[in-house]
Write a structure and sequence with these properties.
The chain has a domain of 110 residues. A hairpin with a 6-residue loop joins strand 3 and strand 4. The two termini are 78 Å apart. Helix 2 packs antiparallel against helix 3. The radius of gyration is 46 Å and the shape is elongated. The protein is mainly α and 244 residues long. The protein contains 5 helices and 6 strands.
C-alpha cells in the first residue's frame, strides 16, 4: 500500500520538478533503509550466537522486513526515474508545441499587416519620393540660372538642408610638447654623421609650445534618399513601390 500510495501521488499532471522532488525524497528514504538493513545484517551473527531463539526470530523478522522495504524503495526509485524522464519528454514536447503556436500566430499577424500596414505606408513613401527628387532638380536648375546671372545667393539642396549634420568648428588651441635633446642638426662633412648645432646632445627635456590652427570639421552627409530607398511589392505579381 505504501508504494502504491506513493505512485498514485505522482498523477499525470505532475510536473518534472514535482516528480524530481519525490524522487529525491524517496532516494533519501532508500539510503536510510539500506543503512538499517546493513546494521541488522552486521548484528545477525551476535544475535545468532546469543542462543535466544525468540530474539533471533524477532531479528530475522526485522531483517526480512527491512530487506523487503529496501526492495520496495528501489523499485519505487526506478518507477519515479522512468516517470521523471517521461514527464521531461512531455514538457519538452508541450513547450515546443507552444513555441510553434506562437510562431504560427506571429507569421499570420505579419502577413495580415503586410496588406494593412506595409502596403499603405509604402504607397505614401512612394508618393513622396518623386516630389523630393523634383525639389532637388528644381534647386539645381535654379542655382544654374542664378550662377549664370552672376549671383552668389545660391540655394541649398534638400539633401544638404535636411540630411546633413551641421559643420563643427574646432577653435585654435595651444599644445605643449616635451622635447628631449637638440632640435637642430647638421651633417659632419668628414664622417657623414648628424651632429647637434649650438647645444649639447644631452640637453635636459624642455617644453615647446605650438599653436594648432582652427579648423572646420564637416558634418556627415547621408546618402541620397531616393537612391537609398527600396520598397518591394507586397505580394507576388504586384508592382514594386519604389527602387530597382
Amino acid at each position: 500500500m505504501f508504494v502504491i500510495a506513493k505512485i498514485k501521488s505522482v498523477n499525470e499532471s505532475a510536473t518534472a520538478v514535482q516528480v524530481a522532488e519525490m524522487l529525491e525524497a524517496t532516494s533519501r528514504e532508500l539510503k536510510a533503509a539500506e543503512a538499517e538493513l546493513a546494521r541488522l545484517d552486521r548484528a545477525h551473527r551476535s544475535v545468532l550466537l546469543a542462543d535466544d531463539d525468540k530474539a533471533l526470530d524477532r531479528h530475522e523478522q526485522q531483517t526480512t522486513a527491512a530487506r523487503r522495504q529496501v526492495a520496495r524503495l528501489r523499485a519505487l526509485v526506478e518507477v519515479l526515474e522512468e516517470r521523471h524522464s517521461s514527464v521531461i519528454k512531455r514538457e519538452t514536447e508541450e513547450a515546443l508545441d507552444r513555441r510553434k503556436a506562437e510562431a504560427v500566430a506571429a507569421v499570420a499577424n505579419v502577413i495580415r499587416r503586410l496588406d494593412t500596414e506595409y502596403a499603405p505606408a509604402a504607397e505614401t513613401i512612394a508618393a513622396f519620393l518623386p516630389d523630393w527628387v523634383s525639389a532637388i532638380n528644381l534647386t539645381k536648375t535654379t542655382n544654374e540660372a542664378l550662377h549664370a546671372a552672376g549671383r552668389s545667393d545660391l540655394l541649398l539642396s534638400p539633401e544638404v538642408m535636411a540630411r546633413k549634420a551641421p559643420n563643427r568648428e574646432e577653435p585654435a588651441r595651444e599644445e605643449i610638447e616635451i622635447v628631449r635633446g637638440p632640435t637642430q642638426w647638421e651633417k659632419d662633412p668628414r664622417t657623414g654623421e648628424m651632429r647637434a648645432i649650438g647645444q649639447s646632445a644631452h640637453e635636459k627635456p624642455r617644453e615647446v609650445r605650438r599653436t594648432i590652427a582652427a579648423r572646420v570639421i564637416l558634418g556627415d552627409q547621408l546618402p541620397p534618399l531616393a537612391e537609398s530607398v527600396a520598397l518591394p511589392a507586397a505580394r507576388p505579381g504586384k508592382r514594386r513601390f519604389w527602387g530597382k
